Request: fold
Amino acid sequence: MGRYAVAIVFLLLAVCSVKGASNGSCVKLLLPEADLVNKFLINNCTKCTNPLFKGIPRPLQVIKCQPKLVQEKRFGPAYDFYQVEAPSSACEHPPPVETTEHHHHMKEILPETTIERMGPVDLPDPSQGLNQFLEDSDASLRLELCKKSKMSFYVGFPDSCKQLGSPYGRLEAPVKSGARSKSKSFFLAWIQAAGLICIYLSGYWFIILSLSGNAVLLNLLLGVYTLEQLKDVSFSLHAVLLSVREYVEATKPDRWSRANIPRRSGCRFWKGSA
Reply:
């Protein structure tokens, strides 16, 4: 398909070169710079913006490019066309498609963003004032709007969009990735979530213990617990701890006795006997 399209374009170019010298009525395959088209878009299409540039909305502008048909062989440029201005890789790849970002809920815990592909950036129909503006400007140029699945573009000769196909053949628009990949963002999000859970649990137990201590103190002040009762409880706990200590010292083996602990450089090391 690409070979036949290029052959048709070259045939039109040959016919144009023969007829153009005689009567000048041949449609143009080679286009001038896009200054007049951009002037019309700025002055007459105020609502037309370029969504490919993030941040401040920019007016819709076009640039002049030449096709790069990638088939079995590489064909040279056969015609000029106007495509929407892109942030990078101008005239090397199709312009990126328009995208819309959808932020999910619970952004602090799971900051995942879904990117929806809206499609190629639309160009206004040249028959709605652009061609008349070019005629009034003595440009002797009429543009035809071609809409493909990858992009929309202007050409200077009519009834040729079906034969042309995509100016870039099988080339795709460059895919731009974010600052962090999805897996890394997902991993960091779960680490952040785990940290927040630990902080929440620590605060919860701190509050519970504080309330328990305050409740005991309040009961003591109100006279529910007497000071003698609290002393009895503390003495009982002390006796239990002493019994546990005596049991541990009685059951530990002799080879772990403190007599076999050497002193080296101010540090103590446990050493078993042979």
Notes: Residues 2-176 form one domain. Residues 252 and 269 are 17 Å apart (CA to CA). The two ends are 90 Å apart (CA to CA). The chain has a mean pLDDT of 69.
